[in-house]
């Protein structure tokens, strides 16, 4: 039977693929225009209102020196995860990632979707438009391929086994053998672990999770049970495959 030999969880935030000085530049680029800012009690606020709330209390944590030291620690942690993948000698990677309005939409919005196409395509840097801000261009290689795009192999046999096992164990999981939004290629939650963590084309099984879009947000308890069911399904796969599980989140 297959064996789960590695479990990894990582943020796929753009900051994980940035150098220290760009952390502050990214904040200046995006934060003031962000429409979804809330206080700890759930009150919706503007950026200026939130800035007034904190009243400079974070100023000592956003200096160049502090931010650069933080970025150095993050990149060291990413390298450690990469080495763990190399050392595990994986035959396949189960990738669990949150879809953020990339492939799951209101016209078809399952809480969970398991992908079983022969390959999963990732976009290349040659698809980045000329109007893309420079600070964005500098972190996009953490998601996009150098030059043209790339097709990553999918372990279809394992994916089909997982679908069957989940259906036999009370999970009516959605499945697809093609990406609904083909122009976009794979979502960033899947591109990041392949580009920054694995770095080599190990066969994958992508599992998309609807992040937060109503009305089909998966409940926390159901996510826990789903994870346990996936673990049981992998261990029931009738091969001697060494499988790693990577959770890619915000």
Protein architecture, described:
- It is a single chain.
- With 250 residues, the chain is of the alpha/beta class.
- It has helices at 20-30, 47-54, 64-88, 134-139, 156-168, 188-198, 220-235; strands spanning 3-11, 37-38, 44-45, 92-99, 112-115, 119-122, 150-153, 174-176, 204-210, 242-249.
- The protein has a six-stranded mixed sheet with strand order 1-10-4-9-5-8. Strands 2-3 form a two-stranded antiparallel ribbon. The protein has a two-stranded antiparallel ribbon with strand order 6-7.
- Strand 2 (37-38) and strand 3 form a beta hairpin.
- Helix 1 packs across helix 3 (64-88) and helix 5 (156-168) packs across helix 7.
- The protein is globular and about 55 Å long.
- The model has no long low-confidence stretch (mean pLDDT 93).
Number of strands: 10
Terminal CA distance: 32 Å
Biggest sheet: strands, sense, closure? Answer: 6 strands, mixed
> What overall form do the CA principal axes indicate?
globular
The secondary structure category is alpha/beta
Q: How much strand?
A: 15-25%
Helix content: 25-40%
**Helix-strand string:** EHEEHHEEEHEHEHEHE
Backbone CA Rg: 19 Å
Ranges where pLDDT stays below 50 over 5 or more residues in a row are: none
Average pLDDT number:
93
Main sheet strand line-up: 1-10-4-9-5-8
The number of helical runs is 7
Topology (elements, then pairings):
Layout (H helix, E strand, L loop, with lengths): L2 E9 L8 H11 L6 E2 L5 E2 L1 H8 L9 H25 L3 E8 L12 E4 L3 E4 L11 H6 L10 E4 L2 H13 L5 E3 L11 H11 L5 E7 L9 H16 L6 E8 L1
Parallel strand pairs: 1-10, 4-9, 4-10, 5-8
Antiparallel strand pairs: 2-3, 5-9, 6-7
């Amino acid at each position: 039977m297959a064996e789960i030999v590695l479990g990894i969880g990582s943020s796929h935030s753009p900051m994980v693929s940035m150098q220290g000085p760009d952390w502050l530049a990214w904040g200046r680029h995006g934060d003031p225009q962000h429409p979804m800012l809330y206080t700890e009690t759930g009150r919706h606020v503007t950026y200026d209102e939130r800035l007034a709330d904190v009243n400079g209390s974070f100023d000592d944590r956003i200096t160049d020196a502090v931010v650069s030291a933080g970025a150095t620690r993050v990149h060291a942690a990413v390298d450690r995860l990469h080495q763990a993948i190399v050392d595990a000698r994986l035959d396949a990677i189960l990738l669990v990632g949150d879809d953020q309005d990339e492939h799951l939409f209101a016209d078809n919005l399952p809480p969970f979707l398991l992908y079983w196409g022969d390959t999963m395509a990732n976009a290349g840097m040659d698809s980045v438009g000329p109007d893309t801000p420079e600070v964005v261009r500098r972190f996009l290689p953490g998601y996009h391929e150098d030059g043209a795009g790339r097709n990553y192999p999918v372990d279809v046999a394992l994916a089909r086994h997982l679908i069957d096992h989940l259906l036999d164990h009370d999970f009516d999981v959605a499945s697809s053998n093609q990406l609904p939004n083909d122009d976009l290629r794979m979502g960033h939650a899947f591109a990041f672990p392949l580009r920054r963590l694995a770095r080599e084309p190990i066969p994958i099984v992508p599992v998309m999770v609807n992040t937060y879009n109503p009305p089909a947000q998966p409940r926390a308890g159901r996510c826990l049970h789903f994870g346990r069911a996936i673990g049981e399904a992998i261990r029931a796969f009738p091969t001697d495959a060494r499988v790693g599980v990577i959770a890619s989140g915000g």
